[in-house]
Amino acid sequence: MQPKLLNFYLDATKRHLAEAGEGIFSGIVAAVRAAGWQITYRGQTEEVGGPGYHLIYNRPVDDPFCLSLRRCYLENYYRIESTNDRWDWDVADLRFPGQKGLGWFQTYWRDRLFKGETIDKGGYIFMPLQGKLLQRRHFQALSPIDMIHATLKADPDRQIIATLHPREVYSDAERAALHEIDRFTLATDKSMPLLAGCDYVVTENSSLALTGYFAAKPAVLFARIDFHHIAGLVPKQGVAAAFSKAQQPQPFADYLWWFFKKNAVCAVGDTSAAQIEKRLRDHGWPL
Q: Rounded distance, CA 273 to CA 267, Å?
């Protein structure tokens, strides 16, 4: 049996927040201390090992008594998971029940995320590209370059306006593959205006597709991810069915309420402590 010891792997800034009583890090510390646990802080990139339970921040999990803490797209929302791969998070395997949520959540975040933007349908597909454009990775149905051609075939009328990921480095071969494709434009504009003005989003699994839900933008996903439930999902449905789903009305407000308010840990609010405790117990930690 493991001792009731939390090894918390944080950098100096996050450790300060944990001890200052601010945010998710403080909430986790308070939850385990309330259960009589001890806390040991370790470096954020330090190798996981030793007695007790281990909580790392946004890095691969490689120990059976280790969990990963990772931000869940929006400010103050987090996941505590046994893997750092978003497509294998617990919510990805849940069935969206379709129950009514509270519409204020979508409205509040739409007004924040799309502040100053005009939400419209401009007759194009927005495609936020990610990395490794010529390679099909294990969680993808097609490589990004093949996704582009499949999209043009599935939707013969609209043009694609795409962006590159600002933190990715692209080879000359990758950039050359994007040249001279009919109805395909590689934009240097910021993503949010393009997202606000598109008809729908096609991507491997960029979080911009989830952001688009707040503006009622349908999505077609060519890779596994945790927010797939109301999208056209090519790995599961195939190309034709996935693009057909993107033309159908979706319960965006209900889904966003369920995804964030029912299935993520919120670092603020009266229920935050209970959410943290439940999540750790769900993973078998003896709080």
A: 8
pLDDT band at residue 178, thresholds of 50, 70 and 90? very high
Let me know: does 68 contact 57? Beta carbons within 8 Å. Answer: yes
This prediction's pTM = 0.95
Q: Where are the domains of the chain?
A: 5-94+264-282, 104-260
**Yes or no: is domain 104-260 CATH 3.30.420?**
no
Query: What is the Cα–Cα distance from 245 to 243, expressed in whole angstroms?
Result: 5
**Tens-digit pLDDT profile for residues 119-145:** 999 999 999 999 999 999 999 999 999
Dihedral angle of Cα 126, 209, 133, 235, to the nearest 10 degrees: -120
Query: How does pLDDT run across 248-268, given as a tens digit for each residue?
Result: 999 999 999 999 999 999 999
Backbone angles phi, psi at 122, to 5 degrees: -95, 5
DSSP string, 136-161: --TTBSS-HHHHHHHHHHH-SSSEEE
Name the one residue in this structure whose structure tokens are 């998710």. Answer: 24
